């Protein structure tokens, strides 16, 4: 724009022109700043930079579980820990959803657990896929000694799978099964048995207060710690073995321990084997059947084979380490066909996992 400057009052005209152009310049800068700001990819509101350089921050009082390493760039958006709670762990797909009772039907393929329940909801920084995140976490779990119960991908886990995670940050998980992956597993190498349920998917739709984008990975990690059943540590003495065989013809032994799905006898079983050998040496004419029993987790055939293999290991140990005549021992297994307690909870399953001696 051209300015007409007169001699009289020229100073005021020049000053006004400078102010006018200065205002245009400031407005131009503000407009440019606004455009630049809108082009910046802002992180979700609950992912903030920290002085420690992690690049993420968690919800208040949240923390990772010591057995599970978080995926890089993840933040905890929900955390819940209950010292004594109940949890249903899927060991198979959701066959249907019982809307009357608002609960899933796993057709019996589940574990009803009681113990310390920790539930952690993670939001993963954009750029990773659910397949990548799931593979990383699964590998970490298997490396640490977890044993898989069940694994599924997408619709194979069940059409109503989102209902399992209702009200975890509103509808964050409820309508997003397309990229889902699920794993349930068990860790029994510590003072308590730890069960894990891992659900990883990619957000699509759903009302939630979490600032999340379509395609961004979200995951639910649930861990249930069940204290060891006390009778697993009880060693039956030689005198008690004799008394129970005489009165009932059989005795259940819980001091002989095995790793999950394995037949190798753990070293801490030595005391129980000592007592069996002591009884057999004191009763040289007695012959016994050594019978393996399992819980109902897994297939019929796998449990039958496992129970037979465990019984054979016990017989082998008595023969090789204690010089018991093999003609006095007969190994057999019945899988989960002879339970003495309910298989619907861990306490019952622990009682069913046993080795029995029966008089021939």
Please outline the helices and strands.
Blueprint: H1 10-39, E1 74-90, E2 96-98, E3 103-105, E4 110-124, H2 130-143, E5 147-153, E6 181-187, E7 192-202, E8 217-227, H3 238-248, E9 250-253, H4 270-282, E10 288-293, H5 300-322, E11 329-333, H6 346-352, E12 354-359
Parallel strand pairs: 10-11
Antiparallel strand pairs: 1-4, 2-3, 4-8, 5-6, 6-7, 7-8, 9-12, 10-12
Helix pairs in contact: 3-4, 4-5
Kindly describe this structure:
Residues about 1-55 have low confidence and may be disordered. Helices cover about 25% and strands about 25% of the residues. With about 350 residues, the protein is α+β, with helices and mostly antiparallel strands. The chain starts with 9 loop residues before the first helix and ends with a strand. The radius of gyration is 32 Å and the shape is elongated. It folds into two domains: about 75-225, Protein Transport Mog1p, Chain A (3-Layer(aba) Sandwich); about 230-360, OmpA-like domain (60s Ribosomal Protein L30, Chain: A).
């Amino acid at each position: 724009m051209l300015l007409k400057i007169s001699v009289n009052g020229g100073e005021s005209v020049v000053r006004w022109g400078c102010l006018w152009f200065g205002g245009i310049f400031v407005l131009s800068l503000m407009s440019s700043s606004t455009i630049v700001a809108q082009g910046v990819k802002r992180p979700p509101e609950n992912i903030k930079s920290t002085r420690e350089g992690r690049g993420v921050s968690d919800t208040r009082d949240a923390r990772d579980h010591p057995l599970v390493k978080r995926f890089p760039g993840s933040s905890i958006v929900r955390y819940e820990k209950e010292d004594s709670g109940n949890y249903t762990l899927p060991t198979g797909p959701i066959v249907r959803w019982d809307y009357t009772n608002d609960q899933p039907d796993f057709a019996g393929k589940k574990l009803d657990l009681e113990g310390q329940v920790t539930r952690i909801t993670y939001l993963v920084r954009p750029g990773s896929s659910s397949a990548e995140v799931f593979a990383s976490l699964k590998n970490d779990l298997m490396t640490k000694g977890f044993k898989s119960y069940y694994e599924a991908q997408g619709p194979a886990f069940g059409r109503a799978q989102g209902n399992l995670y209702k009200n975890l940050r509103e509808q964050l998980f409820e309508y997003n099964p397309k990229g889902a992956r699920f794993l349930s597993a068990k860790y029994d190498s510590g003072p308590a048995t730890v069960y894990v349920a891992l659900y990883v998917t990619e957000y699509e739709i759903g009302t939630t207060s979490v600032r999340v984008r379509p395609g961004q990975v979200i995951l639910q990690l649930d861990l249930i710690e069940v204290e060891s059943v006390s009778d697993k540590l009880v060693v039956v003495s030689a005198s008690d073995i004799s008394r129970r065989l005489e009165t009932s013809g059989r005795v259940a032994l819980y001091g002989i321990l095995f790793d999950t799905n394995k037949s190798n006898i753990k070293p801490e079983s030595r005391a129980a084997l000592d007592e069996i050998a002591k009884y057999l040496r004191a009763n040289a004419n007695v012959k016994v059947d050594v019978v393996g029993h399992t819980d109902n987790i897994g297939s019929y055939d796998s449990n039958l084979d496992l129970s037979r293999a465990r019984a054979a290991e016990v017989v082998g140990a008595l023969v090789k380490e204690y010089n018991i005549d093999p003609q006095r021992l007969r190994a057999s297994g019945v899988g989960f066909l002879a339970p003495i307690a309910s298989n619907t909870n861990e306490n019952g399953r622990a009682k069913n996992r046993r080795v029995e001696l029966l008089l021939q």
